[in-house]
């Protein structure tokens, strides 16, 4: 989404030259061009947003007519221990996933940038991101199998004990976070790689003439000049990471007990296994509040970091 | 090129990263080519012991039920071809509708002048911030009340007309192309409609194709919406079918060889896309921050 800004600033080159009547575009033809998109936007974005908000003030359960309960759902959410636990679990997931993913991606991006232009290598790095979450989840379930999984085999070979991974209360959420780190590192690295292309090459030449080593050039040229891109990538990852669902749904279904019951999965369960649509909608509203807060943070970070390459 | 130990070390690092990225896929293939009986014999060699196509045959429905039971230890099966067809249809329908209609809307936002244009555009943009789970609930209620559960149109509908991202993405490209050619065509008397199809679309082939590929990959990977809408066999897609297949195999002795054969087959289309559009996909990454 927001990474589009990497490519070019929000363009404002709409035709504003005066003159021919051709320039004075008209509402009628615009409506023809917009009609299908407007139908889709109204039906699947605008109306559902309003309707979802309305659900959150009712006891709607899909079967009987909704009754308005005012702020009742919101009150219940605030005193729901599973909700707070889900937020905590999601928080652990987001922090661990985004931190490892960004650090590893930064390393990978630097290696690619300094070593090779190969499209082949970049395509290979992207592969896990292109494969469905469901497939990735199944693949790692097998690799991490407690008894015969390859990873536990390696653990034994190097003298460590077998681990429960997905099925250990202490490890499940971190394991899921690691799986998704593995899936997204290549993609994130390519975003950062694209950002590094924007850094003028002569800076590195100047650095080399001054006798700077690779480490120093990374710290004093790459990192500071990459900061705007890095901030952007970080927040895009953060927002994406909050919406973890598929991997949990396939591997642990929130377990053991509540150890991997993330907020997205909890909302899904409330809505589609217990049919508490009102309650689930109220939780989604809280989620929106978090995401909007993150987006505002993103905008501040972006504004605060545009000056370095000016 | 300088040859020095540091550079060598960097290459070792890069190759290690590639190995970690690709090894799980190799292990998937290795497992798929191993009979279930040989899977638990304590061998972890990188090549399958006694390679066999039986798991692929089972998943593709080429093996007889007796052979399948003998090889899998379970009677669980999946109608792979049906789910593959559904996934392909789903992706094609979404790409065709979404790219066409989003391009038309993006053109209107980039080039036409009408009242409320900017307000409408920012309204489109602002919905990008709303997490999908929030609109999934009312969308499900809507499709259910229209009788769209377990129908193909119910599966496709929410993606068919537009996404705010697609409109935004294409508008940026349309704005960056000089308007002179369109103006010249306009002065020659061509209508906006003809200019769009005969000038704007051909000139923006690249971005349109990029968007089509990205949309295809995303639709292919979609899980939650198909899980809710396409429950019956006749509309079930590959992602949900794989998850269901996994849930059906007994917890004590999952049919890993069969699962990995299915997973391998599900990766093949992605691999094909990467071979056909590798450079385009890789180059498009800077423009998109989706998911």
Can you put this structure into words, describing what you see?
The complex is a heterodimer of chains A (310) and B (291). Chain A has 13 helices and no strands. With 310 residues, chain A is an all-alpha fold. Chain A has one domain: MetI-like fold (Orthogonal Bundle). In chain A, helix 2 crosses helix 13. Chain B has a domain of 120 residues: MetI-like (MetI-like fold, Orthogonal Bundle). In chain B, helix 1 packs across helix 15, helix 5 crosses helix 12 and helix 14 packs antiparallel against helix 15. The interface between A and B is large, with 110 and 107 residues. Chain B: Pfam families: BPD_transp_1. Chain B: It is a multi-pass membrane protein. Chain B: It is found in: Cell membrane. Chain B: InterPro entries: MetI-like, MetI-like_sf.
Features:
heterodimer, A: 310 residues, mainly alpha, MetI-like fold, 13 helices, globular, B: 291 residues, 15 helices, 71% helix, Sugar ABC transporter permease (chain B), transmembrane (chain B), MetI-like (chain B), transmembrane helix (chain B), cell membrane (chain B)
């Amino acid at each position: 989404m927001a990474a589009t800004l990497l490519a070019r600033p929000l363009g404002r080159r709409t035709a504003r030259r005066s003159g021919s009547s051709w320039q004075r575009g008209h509402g009628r033809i615009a409506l023809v061009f917009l009609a299908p998109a407007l139908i889709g936007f109204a039906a699947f974005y605008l109306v559902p947003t309003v309707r979802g908000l309305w659900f959150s003030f009712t006891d709607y359960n899909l079967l009987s007519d909704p009754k308005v309960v005012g702020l009742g759902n919101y009150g219940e959410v605030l005193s729901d221990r599973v909700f707070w636990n889900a937020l905590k679990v999601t928080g652990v997931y987001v922090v661990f996933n985004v931190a490892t993913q960004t650090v590893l991606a930064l390393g990978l991006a630097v290696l690619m940038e300094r070593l090779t232009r190969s499209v082949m290598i970049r395509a290979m790095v992207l592969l896990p991101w292109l494969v469905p979450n469901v497939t990735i989840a199944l693949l790692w379930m097998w690799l991490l199998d407690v008894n015969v999984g390859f990873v536990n085999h390696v653990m034994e070979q190097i003298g460590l004990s077998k681990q429960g991974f997905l099925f250990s209360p202490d490890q499940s959420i971190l394991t899921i976070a690691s799986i998704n780190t593995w899936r997204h590192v290549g993609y994130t690295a390519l975003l950062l790689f694209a950002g590094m292309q924007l850094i003028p090459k002569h800076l590195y030449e100047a650095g080399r003439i001054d006798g700077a080593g690779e480490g120093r050039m990374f710290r004093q040229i790459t990192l500071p000049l990459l900061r705007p891109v890095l901030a952007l990538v970080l927040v895009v990852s953060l927002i994406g990471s909050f919406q973890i669902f598929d991997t949990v749904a396939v591997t642990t279904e929130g377990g053991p007990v509540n150890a991997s019951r993330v907020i997205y999965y909890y909302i899904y369960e409330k809505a589609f296994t217990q049919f508490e649509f009102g309650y689930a909608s109220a939780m989604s509203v809280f989620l929106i509040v978090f995401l909007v807060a993150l987006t505002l943070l993103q905008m501040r970070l972006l504004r605060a970091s545009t000056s370095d390459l000016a | 090129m300088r040859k020095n130990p540091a550079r060598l070390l960097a290459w070792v690092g890069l190759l290690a990263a590639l190995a970690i990225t690709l090894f799980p896929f190799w292990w998937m293939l290795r497992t798929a080519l191993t009979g279930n009986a040989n899977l638990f014999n304590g061998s972890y060699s990188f090549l399958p012991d006694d390679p066999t196509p039986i798991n692929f045959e089972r998943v593709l429905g080429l093996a007889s039920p007796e052979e399948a039971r003998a090889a899998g230890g379970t009677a669980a099966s999946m109608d792979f071809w049906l789910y593959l067809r559904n996934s392909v249809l789903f992706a094609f329908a979404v790409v065709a509708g979404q790219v066409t209609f989003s391009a038309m809307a993006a053109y209107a936002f980039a080039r036409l002048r009408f009242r409320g244009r900017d307000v409408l555009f920012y309204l489109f943009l602002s919905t990008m911030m709303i997490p999908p789970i929030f609109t999934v609930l009312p969308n499900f209620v809507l499709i259910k009340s229209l009788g769209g559960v377990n129908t193909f149109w119910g599966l496709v509908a929410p993606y068919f007309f537009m996404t705010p991202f697609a409109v935004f993405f294409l508008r940026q490209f349309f704005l960056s192309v000089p308007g002179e050619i369109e103006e010249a065509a306009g002065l020659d008397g061509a209508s906006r409609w003809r200019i769009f199809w005969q000038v704007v679309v051909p000139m923006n082939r690249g971005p349109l194709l990029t968007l089509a590929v990205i949309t295809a990959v995303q639709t292919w990977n979609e899980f939650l919406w198909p899980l809710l809408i396409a429950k019956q066999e006749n509309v079930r897609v590959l992602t949900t079918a794989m998850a269901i297949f996994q849930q059906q195999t007994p917890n004590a002795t999952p049919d890993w060889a069969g699962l990995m054969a299915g997973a391998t087959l599900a990766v093949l289309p992605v691999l094909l896309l990467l071979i056909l559009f590798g450079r385009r996909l890789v180059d498009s990454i800077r423009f998109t921050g989706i998911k």
